[in-house]
Design goal:
Shape: globular
Organism: Neorhodopirellula pilleata
Number of helices: 13
CATH topology of the largest domain: Rossmann fold
Largest sheet: 5 strands, parallel
Protein name: ATPase RavA
Strand content: 15-25%
Order of helices and strands: HHEHEHEEEHEEEHEHHHHEHHEH
Number of strands: 11
GO molecular function, one term: ATP binding
Number of domains: 2
CATH superfamily of the largest domain: P-loop containing nucleotide triphosphate hydrolases
Pfam families: AAA_3 (PF07726), AAA_lid_2 (PF17863)
Structural class: alpha/beta
Distance between the termini: 52 Å
CATH architecture of the largest domain: 3-Layer(aba) Sandwich
Helix content: 40-55%
InterPro entries: ATPase_AAA-3, CbbQ/NirQ/NorQ/GpvN, ChlI/MoxR_AAA_lid, P-loop_NTPase
Length: 344
């Protein structure tokens, strides 16, 4: 019997279990893990801009491995699947296709790899716009339509898409309309020296300083308590608890709208952020508040999430290189004004 998630303490237990499991397999990515878990609890999707070999597949597999599906659950779905996007990929390779079943003498639908709780869309910008658009319905509506028949996806559906920021040969850059479907765009950098040494020591115990591999008893510490059983249903329940029990004041929502207005009016911006961006930011702020043990959203939550939420949604004027500085400047101005008003 899977325990019901009813309180913020239950949600925090799920969060800590997910984070601990991911951190044991992926070194030096604590901040990225937190943002991905915010997206999971906020029912959003994530675009990772990274270099090859940075651990994105390991991280996605680690997150998918935390989700336990019941033996009697829908066999079409899996906890984790990976789609390697290439120029010759077809939309049916993502969503599935209808094939003739000679045993039953009829056409049957064979679901594609998008039928999973965690989907790694690897190098999504290496495939054609037609294939990229096949992901849009799944990401926005949690469903796929094949031969005029709509097939629903599960509520716990998260896309982790990746793209290489340097190698642009043979790529199809994502248009702004598609970028807007991602809650976060996270730019990953190379690991620090210490974390890279930890990765090598985990993979090759003989690389440890003392030259000896530690035993399993020495290398793993006893957990404080049994981690909760995490199922797609428990994540859906956690989202409902966060939505109902994390308070967000009107001053925070007004600041969010103010940031949007200033970004749209900024002369360096050709096209500002959409209203949809504001809508999806609210559950992300609530999820971050939960992670820090609060039942209310504070300006620090808005400050921490503004860059990964807004930066990739801006269309800049010619000659403007980066949107990060613009978002940071505008967010800081609004938050400082919010803090001054609260002291009056």
């Amino acid at each position: 019997m899977v325990p019901t998630v009813k309180t913020l303490s239950d949600v925090q237990a799920i969060y800590h279990a997910l984070k601990n499991s991911c951190e044991t397999q992926v070194q030096g990515r604590s901040d990225v893990i937190d943002l991905i878990l915010v997206a999971l609890f906020a029912d959003g999707h994530v675009l990772l801009e990274d270099h090859p070999g940075s651990g994105k597949t390991t991280l996605a597999k680690a997150l998918g491995g935390c989700i336990h599906r019941a033996t009697n659950s829908d066999p079409r779905f899996a906890a984790f699947r990976r789609i390697q996007f290439t120029p010759d990929l077809l939309p049916s390779d993502v969503t599935g296709t209808t094939v003739f079943d000679p045993n039953r003498n009829q056409l049957t639908y064979q679901p594609g790899p998008v039928f999973a709780n965690i989907v790694l869309a690897d190098e999504i910008n290496r495939t054609s716009p037609k294939v990229q658009s096949s992901m849009l319905e799944a990401m926005a509506e949690k469903q796929v339509t094949v031969d005029n028949v709509t097939h629903p996806l599960e509520d716990t559906f998260l896309v982790l898409a990746t793209q290489n920021p340097l190698d642009q040969a043979g790529t199809y850059p994502l248009p702004k309309a598609q970028l807007d479907r991602f809650l976060f765009k996270i730019r990953m950098t190379f690991l620090s020296r210490d974390h890279e040494l930890q990765v090598l020591a985990m993979k090759y115990p003989q690389c440890r300083e003392d030259g000896h591999a530690t035993s399993a008893a020495q290398s793993t510490r006893e957990p404080d308590a049994s981690p909760p059983l995490i199922t797609p249903e428990s994540i859906s329940q956690a989202r409902k608890v966060i939505q109902d029990q994390i308070k967000i004041s009107r001053s925070i929502t007004e600041s969010l709208v103010e940031i949007a207005g200033r970004l749209r009016a900024d002369p360096r911006v050709a096209q500002g952020i959409s209203t949809r961006a504001l809508v999806v930011t609210i559950p992300a702020l609530q999820a971050r508040a939960m992670m820090y043990g609060r039942d209310f959203v504070i300006p620090d939550d808005l400050k921490a999430l503004s860059l990964p939420v807004f930066s990739h949604r801006l269309e800049l004027q010619p000659g403007i290189a980066s949107s990060d500085t613009i978002v940071e400047e505008v967010t800081l101005q609004v938050i400082e004004s919010l803090c001054r008003d609260s002291l009056k």
